[in-house]
Amino acid sequence: MSNVIVIGAGIGGLAAGCYARLNGFEVTVLEGSERAGGLCTSWNRGGYTFDGCIRHLAGLKPETALYRMWSDLGSVPARAFFPEELVKVMDESGRELTVYYDTGKLEEEMKRIAPEDSDTIREYIKAIQLLSSIELMEVGFWKFSDWLKKIPILLKSRKYSRVSMEKFAEKFSSPVLKRFFPVIQYGWKNIPLTLHLAVMAGSGRKMYGRYAGGSYQFSRAIEERYLSLGGDLRLGARVERILTDNDAVTGVQLESGEEIAADHVISDVYGYDTFIKLLDDRYLTDQLRSIYSKPIDRMMMAIHVSLGIDKDLQDMPNSMAFFPDKPIEIAGEKHEMLSILNYGYDPAMAPEGKTSLKVIYDTSYSYWEELFEDEQSYEKEKRQIAENTIQALERVFPSLETAIEVIDVATPITTKRFTANGQGYGSKEDFSLKDILRGFLNRPLRLKSLKNFYVIGHSVGGANLYGCAAMGRNAIKSLCKKEKKKFIAS
Ligand SMILES: Cc1cc2nc3c(=O)[nH]c(=O)nc-3n(C[C@H](O)[C@H](O)[C@H](O)COP(=O)(O)OP(=O)(O)OC[C@H]3O[C@@H](n4cnc5c(N)ncnc54)[C@H](O)[C@@H]3O)c2cc1C
Q1: Cα-to-centroid distance, 38 and ligand 1 (Å)
Q2: What is the helix, strand, coil percentage profile of the chain, to 5?
Q3: Sign of CA dihedral 221, 226, 232, 234
Q4: Is beta strand 445-447 parallel, antiparallel or unpaired with respect to 450-455?
Q5: pLDDT tens digits for 30-75?
Q6: Rounded CA gap, 127 and 199, in Å?
């Protein structure tokens, strides 16, 4: 049986490792940092757990393909939380919109704000209901017969993949809905409406939910499953080069100089690093070179201001899109809307009666890279961000400042340091239909010019946790096919 090296113990890499073991391959996962999980992480400070990742975990509905995959990977949560709302939007004049997953309640709520927009609201509600009859996030698991059954629905909903949240909002005549609607899906105005509809439809059917216990627990569960299957995990083992001979991979070389031979190499490492740093340039197509050699500066959800609060906030919404009285300046940019995540639903995230709360901002990588050169300025900016955020939040949480016990600000530099994900993580703001499909199909990326090499993970289309895990799974499936073995899933 041939042996496999997986570079990177992110969710994709750990999943590839588990499926490799389930199918009898010898496998070593090489992880550059001192703990596995990559971006799917959380950390503890002063008795609180602050989360760096999961807001929506797909695959929580038993009997579905994604649920079976998480079962294979040992990560079906013991506890999950299904909020009744995606988000509550609040503006400076006290206007509020709760985006309920229940379409009946949502329709009523939207019509309360904008009865004049009844027709557009109906169209939006019908679009959610249409996608509720299929699990769009399971496209990558569909068999031919599923495609035949589901294609009429895909065709009907195709028009929503061509329109962004912002563009759809133009259809409302109410100025409130025009302003609120574009920010309801994580504040991402430019994503195709389809992505939002899929989250609404999936959450309404409890396919999506919030993970209880912190994202690190989730990745830790997969790591433990991998180890229990007899997988070899080496932490602190940073790969420097992918070794090749005769246009086929032969192994990897670590930073320490050690060389490890392999029949197959799967890279779960951030695209720029895989293609530009680890691999010889001659294997790249022009297209790959042009996509990955220019990292994107804009980073979404990249500043995390986490607060440990001596207050029980479990009665507040799990997520809030909040327009402050005046735009607040954060990291050289004016922010008109704050994305607040309230973990009050999860007792594991804070001591009893207290709450872990987070505000996230988009930012630009270069700003932080430059600032980090002077440690004092970097720390000063972090303090300033926390101060501005807390001040703005006082409107929603009166006397917040006195209840704060812990403040933690993570920046793109923090993410880079702990997960090796640098510039350009998920920063793509213009999605094409092709991007969406590629994201949903979860195919690993392969190079025509280099045999036995697979690239998986968020920066080559995995997009989210289930996508990355499914890519890892599909890499092993394709390896089994190559070796004429029946793929074993569990
Ligand atoms: C703020 C935020 C919120 C998110 N929310 C959600 C959500 O709600 N739901 C969801 O499904 N997804 C969410 N995601 C996306 C999800 O976290 C990612 O898609 C997923 O975790 C990426 O996994 P990956 O397999 O691509 O690996 P990564 O997480 O990128 O891990 C790669 C690993 O490779 C290691 N590595 C890098 N270079 C080397 C090297 N040279 N040698 C050895 N090891 C190396 C790194 O240390 C790292 O551990 C979120 C992401 C972020 C940032």
Answers
A1: 5
A2: 40, 25, 35
A3: negative
A4: antiparallel
A5: 999 999 999 999 999 999 999 999 999 999 999 899 999 999 999 9
A6: 12
Ligand 1, residue 458: give the atom nearest the CA.
26
Ligand 1 centre distance from Cα of residue 178 (Å): 33
DSSP letter at 232?
E
Q: Which two tokens stand for residue 156?
A: 């009907």
CA distance 228 to 234: 15
Tens-place pLDDT, residues 266-276: 999 988 899 98
Which of 239, 269, 305, 459 has most ligand 1 atoms within 8 Å of its beta carbon, as the pocket-test mutant?
269
Quick check: 277 and 290 in contact, CB under 8 A? no
Say if CB 128 and CB 203 are below 8 A apart. Answer: no
Choose the residue to mutate in 33, 268, 339 for probing ligand 1, maximizing ligand atoms within 8 Å of C-beta: 268
Quick one: three-class SS letters along 37-81? CCCCCEEEECCEEEECCCCCEECCCCCCHHHHHHHHCCCCCCCEE
Q: Which residues line ligand 1 (CB under 6 A)?
A: 7-13, 30-33, 38-40, 52-57, 238-239, 268-270, 273, 301, 419-421, 457-458, 462, 464-466, 468
Residue with tokens 């939910």: 209
Instruction: Please report, as a single letter, which amino acid is at residue 418.
Output: F
β-strand 298-309 against 404-410: which pairing, if any?
Answer: antiparallel
Residue-wise pLDDT tens digits, 370-429: 999 999 999 999 999 999 999 999 999 989 999 999 999 999 999 999 998 877 544 344
Class of the CATH domain delimited by 3-40+63-76+213-294+428-482: alpha beta
C-alpha of residue 481 to centroid of ligand 1, in Å: 27
Nearest-angstrom CA–CA distance, 38 and 270: 10
138 contacts 207 by C-beta, under 8 angstroms? no
- Residue 426: what pLDDT? 40
C-beta atoms surrounding 241 within 10 Å: 15
Mutate to test the pocket of ligand 1, among 188, 458, 459 (most ligand atoms within 8 A of CB): 458
The ligand 1 atom at the shortest distance from the C-alpha of residue 421 is 30
Cα(142) to centroid of ligand 1, in Å? 25
Please report the atom of ligand 1 found closest to the CA of residue 304. Answer: 1
| Index of the ligand 1 atom closest to the CA of residue 415 | 53
> Whole-angstrom distance between the N-terminal and C-terminal Cα of the chain?
19
Atom 35 of ligand 1, residue of closest alpha carbon: 8
Model-level pTM greater than 0.85? yes
One-letter amino acid identity for 155? L
Helices (H), 332-464: 365-371, 375-393, 400-403, 412-419, 433-441
Q: Please list the residue range(s) of the chain that carry CATH number 3.50.50.60.
A: 3-40+63-76+213-294+428-482
